[in-house]
Amino acid sequence: MKTITVGRFPIGSWTTGGPATDQDYEHCEIYIVPFISDADAKKKAQAIRRRLISKGLPLPTQRAPYIA
Prior knowledge:
Oligomer: single chain
Shape: globular
Radius of gyration: 11 Å
Structural class: alpha+beta
Distance between the termini: 12 Å
């Protein structure tokens, strides 16, 4: 299955695509998830983020992305 980069900007908006090392993602949370569509990837990343927050775990960064 293919993977895609999903980023969450500090203002709360989400984006998909591009390499995780892209300068545009410098201050984003980065999730690399398998996907069928962009909307599917965004939903998966949002679910992962909710789980991390509920468990009190650190959120991923550009230097340490979450790889599903």
